[in-house]
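Hi R.,

As promised on Friday, here is the backbone we talked about, encoded as structure tokens. Could you run it through your design pipeline when you get a chance and send me back a sequence?
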């Protein structure tokens, strides 16, 4: 279990992905699954940074930073 200062997938990252984001990507990977998001993290952050994902608007900077921090921390569960 992560300490209060550490990011965790379940608590901090999974909630960033809305149900409609998950539904639109399920044919490729599951945005609510730690292993899938970990495996595809570079592609996900790349798509978010270029605005290709999500299709209805860009993520706020704080959400992008949180996802990048989680990736940099080794993608903890």
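Update: got your reply. Pasting your designed sequence below so it's all in one thread:
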């Amino acid at each position: 279990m992560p300490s209060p200062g550490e990011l965790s997938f379940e608590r901090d990252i999974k909630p960033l992905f809305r149900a409609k984001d998950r539904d639109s990507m399920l044919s490729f990977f599951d945005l609510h699954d730690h292993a899938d998001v970990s495996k595809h993290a570079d592609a996900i952050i790349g798509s978010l940074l270029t605005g290709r994902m999500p299709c209805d608007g860009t993520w706020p900077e704080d959400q992008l930073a949180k996802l990048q921090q989680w990736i940099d921390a080794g993608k903890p569960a």
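One thing I noticed while checking it: The first helix runs from residue 9 to 13.

Thanks again,
M.
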